[in-house]
């Protein structure tokens, strides 16, 4: 007999997945400098876990981000949250990978004491992270740390 999950059970499962990915992310931060290969493997597992999560509705998104539904709608309208068009419903659904990225930044900002003007602050953090994730910058920073500096003319 096939088992179906209720909306509440599915929501709890998604929240548990997000929490597990958050815990793994904390470990990545600890080991990424000393064990970069293992850190990349954990990040791959995290992405895989999040890719298994179906698109999320506004109510669950607001609960995961700890903001109200109007804020979720506004952030989506501004392009911060990525909407997924399932074609079968008029309800708004959001990409879980992007939602997790935003949740991570929201938590960082709140732990630093920021609770207002989150939209701009999140954009700035995500843009900064995109720059830091560039491979050419990572190589240059590693060369700098290793003392492999080229003299300017």
Automatic annotation (TrEMBL):
Domain HTH merR-type: 61-113
Sequence intervals crossing the membrane: none
InterPro entries referenced in this protein's UniProt entry, alphabetically: DNA-bd_dom_put_sf, MerR-type_HTH_dom
Superkingdom, natural source: Bacteria
Name of the protein in question: HTH merR-type domain-containing protein
Species assigned in the record: Saccharopolyspora dendranthemae
């Amino acid at each position: 007999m096939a088992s179906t999950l209720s909306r509440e059970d599915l929501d709890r499962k998604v929240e548990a997945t997000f929490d597990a990915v958050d815990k793994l992310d904390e470990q990545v931060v600890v080991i990424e400098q000393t064990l970069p290969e293992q850190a990349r493997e954990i990040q791959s597992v995290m992405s895989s876990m999040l890719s298994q999560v179906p698109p999320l509705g506004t109510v669950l998104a607001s609960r995961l981000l700890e903001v109200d539904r109007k804020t979720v709608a506004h952030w989506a309208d501004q392009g911060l949250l990525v909407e997924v068009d399932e074609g079968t419903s008029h309800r708004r659904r959001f990409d879980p990978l992007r939602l997790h990225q935003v949740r991570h930044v929201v938590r960082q900002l709140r732990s630093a004491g920021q609770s207002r003007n989150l939209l701009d602050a999140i954009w700035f953090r995500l843009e900064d992270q995109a720059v830091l994730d560039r491979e050419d910058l990572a190589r240059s920073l590693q060369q700098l740390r290793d003392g492999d500096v080229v003299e300017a003319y």
